[in-house]
C-alpha cells in the first residue's frame, strides 16, 4: 500500500513541477505507476528543496511525532485532569438511570494508573481493556517507526478491521447488557 502511494506521489510531483526537461508535455521521465521507478536522484525517504516533496515529508514527520506523543499525553491527561469531580455527561445514564457499557471507564483508567487494580476492576473492565489495546497499538506504531516498516500484526489487523470492529462492539454491547441485567436484579 505504501509503495503505491509513493509512486502516485512521484507521478504527481513530476506532472506538476516545471523543473523537468521538455516542459509539461514530456512523458519520458514520468515514472510508470505500475513500476517502482522514482525520478533520478530522488529517494522517497529524503526531503529535498521541492516544496511538494518537503511538505509531504513534514506531514510524515508530524504524524510520527503525534503517534509518539499520543500515549504519554493520554496518560498525563488521565492523571492530572480531575475526572472524578466532573458532572456525569453520559446521555444513556441520564435517560435511563442505568450505566452504559463505558460508564466508569475513565475512573477505571485513573485507578489503573495509580496501580489500584481492585478498584479498576470494580469500576469497569472495559477501561482496562481499552488501555491494553491502546498500549499495544502504540507499541506497534513505535516499533514500525523505529524499524521503518510495517509489522505483520498491522497487516493482519488492517485486513480484518471490519470483523475486529464488529467483535469489539459485540463484546461491549454484551458487557453492557450483562451489567444492566445485574444492576436491575438487585
Low-pLDDT stretches are 18-38
Helical/strand content category: mainly alpha
Overall morphology:
elongated
Share of β-strand residues: under 5%
- What's the N-to-C terminus distance? 53 Å
Q: How many distinct helices? A: 8
Would you list the SSEs in sequence order as H and E? HHHHHHHH
* Secondary structure: helix percent: 55-70%
Number of structural domains: 2
Could you walk me through the main structural features you see in this protein, from its secondary elements to its overall organization?
- This protein has 186 residues and is mostly helical.
- The chain has two domains: 1-46, no CATH class; 66-185, no CATH class.
- Helices cover 66% and strands 0% of the residues.
- It has eight helices and no strands.
- It has helices at 2-16, 51-80, 91-96, 105-113, 117-123, 125-147, 152-159, 161-185.
- It is elongated and about 65 Å long.
- The chain starts with a helix and ends with a helix.
- 9% of the residues are buried.
- The model is unreliable at 18-38 (pLDDT under 50).
Write the SSE topology.
Layout: H1 2-16, H2 51-80, H3 91-96, H4 105-113, H5 117-123, H6 125-147, H7 152-159, H8 161-185
Helix pairs in contact: 2-6, 4-5, 4-6
List keywords for this structure.
186 residues, mainly alpha, 0% strand, elongated
Brief overview, please?
The chain folds into 2 domains: 1-46, no CATH class; 66-185, no CATH class. Helix content is 66%, strand content 0%.
Amino acid at each position: 500500500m505504501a509503495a503505491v502511494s509513493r509512486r502516485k506521489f512521484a507521478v504527481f510531483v513530476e506532472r506538476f513541477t516545471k523543473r523537468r526537461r521538455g516542459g509539461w508535455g514530456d512523458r519520458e521521465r514520468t515514472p510508470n505507476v505500475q513500476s517502482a521507478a522514482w525520478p533520478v536522484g530522488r529517494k522517497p525517504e529524503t526531503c529535498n528543496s521541492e516544496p511538494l516533496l518537503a511538505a509531504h515529508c513534514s506531514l510524515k514527520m508530524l504524524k510520527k511525532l503525534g503517534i509518539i506523543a499520543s500515549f504519554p499525553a493520554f496518560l498525563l491527561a488521565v492523571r492530572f485532569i480531575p475526572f472524578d469531580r466532573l458532572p456525569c455527561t453520559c446521555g444513556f445514564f441520564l435517560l435511563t438511570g442505568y450505566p452504559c457499557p463505558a460508564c466508569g471507564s475513565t475512573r477505571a483508567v485513573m485507578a489503573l494508573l495509580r496501580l489500584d487494580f481492585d478498584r479498576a476492576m470494580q469500576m469497569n473492565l472495559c477501561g482496562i481493556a481499552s488501555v491494553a489495546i491502546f498500549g499495544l497499538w502504540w507499541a506497534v506504531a513505535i516499533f514500525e517507526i523505529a524499524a521503518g516498516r510495517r509489522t505483520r500484526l498491522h497487516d493482519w489487523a488492517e485486513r480484518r478491521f471490519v470483523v475486529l470492529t464488529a467483535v469489539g462492539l459485540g463484546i461491549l454491547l454484551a458487557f453492557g447488557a450483562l451489567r444492566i441485567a445485574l444492576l436491575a436484579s438487585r
